[in-house]
Task: inverse folding
C-alpha cells in the first residue's frame, strides 16, 4: 500500500495565501486549479501543486530561515518560501532562462514579493554560493546525482530537498556536519542543467 504524502498545515496555508494563477502566463491561467504541471514556455513548467506542497512540507522552512530556490521558474515557489519564512529578504532564487527571470521578477513584484532576491543563473555555477550558507534549499529540477556543489551551500542544521534520478531526496546536515539522506517517492521533473561539476 502506498503511503500517503503528508502536507503540513503551514504549507496548505501558504498555498492558499499565494495563488498559483498569479505566477502563470495568461494563456494557461484558466487551468491553474488543475493538479498538473503547466507550461511556462522555453521547455519549463510550473510544477504540479501537490508535488510543490509535498516538497515544501518536507523542506519545512521556518520563520527566519535563509532559503534558496533553485529553478524558480515563474517565481511561485520563491513566493511560497517567502510566505513560509515570513521575510522576503531571506529568500534567494536562481533561474537559468532569461525570459523566465523577467517573468518571475514581474510576477513577484505584482504579488507583493518584490524583496525576494532573484538572479539569472550562471551556467557554470549551481545555486548561489556567494550568498551561502542557507538553512533550506529547494531544487525544482532533477539532477542525475546529488550535487556536491549544492551540499556545500547547506548550513549546519540545514536541509536540501531535490529530485535525483527520479526520486525525491531529503538531505539533512547535522550541526556536526554529518549528512543523512532520505529517499521518498518518484517524481518527474525537467532536468537540472549547469556546466560545472559536483
Result:
Amino acid at each position: 500500500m502506498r503511503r500517503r504524502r503528508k502536507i503540513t498545515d503551514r504549507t496548505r496555508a501558504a498555498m492558499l495565501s499565494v495563488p498559483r494563477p498569479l505566477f502563470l502566463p495568461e494563456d494557461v491561467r484558466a487551468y491553474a486549479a488543475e493538479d498538473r504541471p503547466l507550461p511556462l514556455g522555453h521547455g519549463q513548467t510550473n510544477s504540479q501543486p501537490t508535488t510543490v506542497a509535498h516538497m515544501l512540507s518536507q523542506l519545512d522552512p521556518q520563520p527566519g530561515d535563509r532559503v534558496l530556490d533553485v529553478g524558480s521558474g515563474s517565481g511561485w515557489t520563491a513566493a511560497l518560501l517567502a510566505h513560509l519564512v515570513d521575510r522576503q529578504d531571506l529568500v534567494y532564487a536562481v533561474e537559468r532562462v532569461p525570459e523566465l527571470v523577467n517573468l518571475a521578477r514581474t510576477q513577484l513584484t505584482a504579488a507583493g514579493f518584490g524583496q525576494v532576491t532573484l538572479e539569472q543563473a550562471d551556467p557554470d555555477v549551481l545555486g548561489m554560493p556567494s550568498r551561502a550558507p542557507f538553512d533550506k534549499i529547494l531544487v525544482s529540477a532533477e539532477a542525475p546525482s546529488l550535487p556536491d556543489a549544492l551540499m556545500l551551500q547547506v548550513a549546519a542544521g540545514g536541509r536540501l530537498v531535490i529530485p535525483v534520478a527520479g526520486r525525491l531526496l531529503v538531505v539533512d546536515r547535522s550541526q556536526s556536519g554529518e549528512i543523512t539522506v532520505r529517499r521518498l517517492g518518484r517524481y518527474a521533473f525537467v532536468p537540472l542543467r549547469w556546466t560545472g561539476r559536483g
Notes: Residues 108 and 114 are 5 Å apart (CA to CA). The longest strand covers residues 154-164.
